[in-house]
Amino acid sequence: MAPATLRVTEIFFSLQGETSRVGLPTVFVRLAGCPLRCRWCDTPYSFQGGEILDLADILYRVAAWHPRHVTVTGGEPLAQKHCGNLLAALCDAGYDVSLETGGALDIAEVDPRVCRILDIKPPGSGEAQRNRWENLAALTARDEVKFVLAGREDYEWAKQVMREHGLAERCPVLFSPVYGELQARQLADWMLEDRLPARLQIQLHKALWGEERGR
Predict the structure, then answer these.
(1) Is the pTM above the cut of 0.85?
(2) Under 8 Å CB-to-CB from 212, ≥6 apart: which residues?
């Protein structure tokens, strides 16, 4: 049987810029390809191309940094057939593993040791119709939900989704402003006014390194 392979855009070591793991030294495995085209996507270079690697190659490259934390991201990592194999192999290797997924594909079969970061797309993204709402039933306290918001309309929409589905009772909820469109201070004011049980998230890597790739 041929070894499981994946199309990899890049593997790099940086500080985690998002989620509750923000600031932690982390190895990122960015898989290529994505079925979505969010208006504010900051990694369109991952849509095509990539290097074909088998699991052993990926694990070898990750291990070179001796990390504790590993994040599998994209593109949309779950769009690749063997993403689940990679996540399980990383867990077996003893890493604290998180998955960043766009929310359009099924998360139910992801290894339960993985922290699933589910990005729910608001109307401003242009992809709200692609949200797979069945994923919300699969969430556990180990997972996290993220809303990236471009303005007040997105914010009000996210509040409604959060409350209708009881997300704050399921797992941590993150609200993040679109870089260059919504001021973090404005979003913070709205969240404080509403006493929202969610965490404000600012992309640390962009605050430190801007749009520099591999950061």
Answers:
(1) yes
(2) none
Give the single-character DSSP code of 73.
Answer: E
Of 75, 73, 58, 56, the residue nearest 115 (C-alpha): 73
pLDDT along the chain (215 residues), means of 10: 86 93 96 88 85 97 98 95 97 98 95 97 94 96 97 98 96 94 96 97 78 68
Q: What sign results for the dihedral spanned by CA atoms 116, 119, 120, 126?
A: negative
Q: Indicate if the alpha-carbon torsion angle 176, 115, 7, 119 is positive or negative.
A: negative
My answer on whether omega of the bond before 75 falls inside 30° of 0, hence cis, is yes
Q: Would you say 83 and 5 are in contact if contact means Cβ atoms under 8 Å apart?
A: no
What topology is assigned to 5-209 in CATH? TIM Barrel (3.20.20)
Comparing CA positions, the residue from 198, 73, 68, 87 lying closest to residue 144 is: 198
Residues 184, 42, 22: CA angle, nearest 5 degrees: 55
Q: Quick check: helix, strand or coil at residue 134? A: helix
The backbone region for 66, taken as left when phi is positive above 0, alpha when psi lies in -120 to 50, beta otherwise, is: left
Identity of the residue numbered 163: R
Domain residue limits, the chain:
5-209
